[in-house]
From TrEMBL:
<dbReference type="Pfam" id="PF00580">
    <property type="entry name" value="UvrD-helicase"/>
</dbReference>
<dbReference type="Pfam" id="PF13361">
    <property type="entry name" value="UvrD_C"/>
</dbReference>
<dbReference type="GO" id="GO:0000725">
    <property type="term" value="P:recombinational repair"/>
</dbReference>
<dbReference type="GO" id="GO:0043138">
    <property type="term" value="F:3'-5' DNA helicase activity"/>
</dbReference>
<dbReference type="GO" id="GO:0033202">
    <property type="term" value="C:DNA helicase complex"/>
</dbReference>
<keyword id="KW-0238">DNA-binding</keyword>
<dbReference type="GO" id="GO:0005524">
    <property type="term" value="F:ATP binding"/>
</dbReference>
<dbReference type="InterPro" id="IPR013986">
    <property type="entry name" value="DExx_box_DNA_helicase_dom_sf"/>
</dbReference>
<dbReference type="InterPro" id="IPR027417">
    <property type="entry name" value="P-loop_NTPase"/>
</dbReference>
<dbReference type="InterPro" id="IPR000212">
    <property type="entry name" value="DNA_helicase_UvrD/REP"/>
</dbReference>
<keyword id="KW-0347">Helicase</keyword>
<keyword id="KW-0067">ATP-binding</keyword>
<keyword id="KW-0547">Nucleotide-binding</keyword>
<keyword id="KW-0378">Hydrolase</keyword>
<feature type="region of interest" description="Disordered">
    <location>
        <begin position="1"/>
        <end position="14"/>
    </location>
</feature>
<keyword id="KW-0614">Plasmid</keyword>
<dbReference type="GO" id="GO:0016787">
    <property type="term" value="F:hydrolase activity"/>
</dbReference>
Length: 702
């Protein structure tokens, strides 16, 4: 092209320059957040192509997410032009393996044009395999889910169906101890499960890498062929690779050894999914002789933010010591890190929205803002506050609350109840949950209704015998549900009426029985919607909220909401960490496990905290609720503490429920979940934990 290209090496510091130009042999860049690892890796690729050390299609770059791959391609285009950049193999391990498998699908026992099974399809196959084998529990969702998870883990560990026997691998793994039931079941049905997928020409996610790696291991001529295509191999976020992925890299790189890995052990977040931080720490031994480059200057954040991030991560015992130093050309230390305590998540979110608005008014250029949290369910309360404050936002890595399928379904029920001639709403839910109204029946009803009442038109056709059997009963069931809504007009509050409508429609019932991995999340979201209904008190107000949300959610909005996991590698002007409470961040799961996992779970949570803290350029704000601020907050030095005044906040400040009390309380809250909305769940759990603790004679933790 004629576009001006930037020199790949311009602006790199000495260490970065060294890493970008050391092209031959193995290279590890082990360095902290924001030190330019991704920038250096990208510059290195552009440099070696500009130097004609390899053709673009001879270069492989493995990223952790598809988004990261897109960003890297854009940067490469700027440096070496779109034409050449588009030929580089940039992608996640899965997408690269999928490309390779598509060339030889028979490696996985598949035919050309195979597709990827989603989680529900996988579980269906497990269920059928269990049933065929006469294994107990095939009708138990949890048992099926557990066996499916074990099979996925076996694939990530490189175990094929042939190798998965209790006598073999599993026996070794449990070293003579009794093998847990789900593991034994998984081993028993693994081969049948695989056969069922193959019948439908489906691969699951784990298959993509598994069979390619097996073929690379078992067939030397195939390995030479594939390895020979890539002269240079690069891996970003190497700390989150699992054993199979490291093996894949080894099989492809071991002839020429031109392998460059970059990563940060302190940002390892996926141990629960089999990622092994040992891969990055063991890289120099696996690839001896290996050049090591350390980057220490962080170009992203203020000195104050870096000091806080350093102090927090220093509490992790298991880590490769490194410090982040600020950019020496920077003059100011930056504003202090703020820690804000509020009475509840709702109060915290309101304050946060206010503060963002204030910042936007203060600054000439609207600052880009990240709102980061530990788990997706926390987005609802933040979204609510942002909508009230008329602040546009976007939810990254997930659709926003109001765009979620189940929320839109519930709103469609309401819309149809209010106006039975609402064609959009009727289209959406007339046959969802399924009630036998197929395309033909729907068309008849549409024709009979004209511009009028679709619900009554259905009933009329049923009564006239023009719909029969399930179609007739389906049309009547919908009409009955809507009639129930009208009948309840004088008797109940708005939220109760809406709940009644959804009950009559069998909506939540449908998800409770569904074989859908997201069913629990969907039920949480419906519960959240009912909570909002309770707050706003009318159908009109609820629809107005949804509409305002649709306007507030905007792709290019300056405010971006996401989990800390989704934020890895990203940056922006300002960041808020929201919900930094004991039991949320660190998660209740990690708190519970603390007694028997030697604190590993907590250390991984702290890595997440470190990832979150190192995203902003200028300003960092940590928000928690008053009941139980996270232990991580105590680790932040020199913080500016703000309190949203409320009840007995200061009295509770230094106390924290014990792990057991918290666990007990959460179980309690979970079993009553239908009546406790998700956003309140944690508060309820924490409050219950306080009560438990107050009632027990045990001394409070320090
Ligand atoms: P993370 O650990 O979060 O993935 P990283 O180590 O990959 O971070 P980058 O994202 O590559 O770091 O860089 C962080 C920021 O610092 C980017 O805005 C980048 O442009 C900037 N940066 C990196 N190196 C330099 C440099 N030598 N001069 C100026 N800015 C730099
Ligand atoms: Mg990076």
């Amino acid at each position: 092209g004629t576009r001006r290209r930037t020199d790949p090496l311009s602006g790199l510091n000495d260490q970065q320059h060294e890493a970008a130009t050391a092209l031959d042999g193995a290279l590890l860049v082990l360095a902290g957040a924001g030190t330019g690892k991704t920038k250096t890796l990208t510059a290195r690729i552009a440099h070696l192509i500009a130097q004609r050390r390899a053709r673009p299609y001879q270069v492989l770059a493995l990223t952790f997410t598809n988004d990261a791959a897109e960003v890297m391609k854009d940067r490469l285009s700027e440096m070496i032009g779109e034409e050449r950049a588009s030929q580089i193999w940039v992608g996640t391990f899965h997408s690269i393996a999928r490309r390779l498998l598509a060339e030889r699908p028979w490696l996985a026992g598949l035919a050309k044009g195979f597709e990827i099974a989603d989680a529900a399809q996988s579980r269906r196959a497990v269920r059928i395999a269990m049933e065929d084998a006469g294994v107990e529990g095939h009708d138990d969702r949890d048992a099926v889910q557990a066996a499916a998870a074990v099979i996925a883990t076996m694939k990530d560990e490189g175990i094929t169906p042939d190798e998965a026997s209790v006598a073999g691998w599993i026996g070794t793994k449990y070293g003579g101890d009794e093998v847990p039931e789900d593991v034994a079941t998984a081993a028993q049905v693994y081969a049948a499960y695989q056969a069922i997928l193959r019948e439908d020409n489906l691969a699951d996610f784990g298959d993509l890498l598994l069979w390619v790696v097996k073929a690379l291991e078992g067939d030397e001529s195939y390995r030479r062929d594939v390895a020979g295509r890539f002269r240079y191999i690069h891996i970003d976020e190497y700390q989150d690779t699992n054993v199979q992925q490291a093996l894949f890299v080894h099989l492809l790189g071991r002839d020429h050894r031109n392998v460059c890995a970059v990563g940060d052990d302190s940002q390892s977040l996926y141990a629960w999914r089999g990622a092994d931080v040992g891969n990055i720490l063991g890289f120099p031994d696996q690839w001896t002789p290996c050049r090591m480059v350390r980057l220490e200057i962080n170009y992203r954040s203020t000195p104050v933010i870096l000091a806080c991030a350093n102090a927090v991560i220093a509490n992790n015992k298991r880590r490769f010591a490194k410090t982040l130093r600020p950019d020496p050309t920077r003059r100011d230390a930056g504003p202090p890190v703020r820690v804000v305590g509020a009475e509840s998540l709702e109060d915290a979110a309101d304050w946060l929205a206010d503060d963002i608005r204030l910042r936007q008014a203060e600054c000439d250029d609207e600052p880009g803002t990240l709102v980061l949290y530990r788990a997706n369910w926390l987005s609802r309360v933040v979204e609510e506050a942002l909508i009230d404050a008329d602040l546009p936002y976007t939810v990254v890595g997930d659709v926003g609350f109001w765009g979620r399928l189940e929320v839109r379904d519930a709103l469609a029920y309401l819309a149809l109840a209010v106006n039975p001639a609402d064609a959009d709403a009727w289209e959406r839910i007339a046959n969802f949950p399924p009630r036998g109204l197929g395309d033909v029946a729907m068309e008849r009803i549409r024709a009979a209704a004209g511009a009028g009442d679709l619900v009554e038109a259905g009933r009329r056709l049923a009564d006239a015998g023009m719909l029969r059997g399930v179609q007739a009963s389906g049309a009547r069931a919908l009409a009955d549900a809507m009639a129930g809504w009208r009948d309840s007009a004088s008797s109940g509050g708005f939220a109760d009426r809406l709940q009644g409508l959804l009950d009559a429609a069998g909506y939540e019932e449908h998800w409770r029985a569904a074989d859908d991995p997201r069913a629990d999340e969907r039920l949480d979201n419906v519960a959240e919607l009912l909570q909002v209904a309770r707050e706003v008190g009318s159908a009109a107000a609820l629809h107005e909220r949804a509409q305002r949300a649709a306007q507030a959610e905007r792709d290019d909005a300056p405010v971006r909401l996401m989990t800390v996991h989704a934020a890895k590698g990203l940056e922006d002007d300002e960041a808020y960490l929201f919900g930094v409470d004991e039991g949320i961040f660190p998660s209740a799961h990690a708190v519970r496990a603390e007694m028997h996992d030697g604190g590993r779970g907590i250390e991984e949570e702290r890595n997440g905290m470190y990832v979150g803290m190192t995203r902003p350029h200028e300003r960092l704000t940590v928000v928690h609720t008053s009941t139980a601020p996270s232990r991580f907050i105590d680790e932040i030095p020199g913080q500016e503490t703000l309190r949203i005044e409320g009840r007995s906040w200061s009295r509770m400040r230094r106390r924290r429920p014990s792990a057991d009390a918290l666990a007990a309380a959460r179980t309690l809250a979970r079993t009553r979940r239908r009546s406790i909305p998700a956003a309140a769940l944690n508060d309820a759990a924490l409050l219950a934990a306080w009560t438990c603790e107050a009632n027990s004679a045990a001394p409070a933790e320090p």
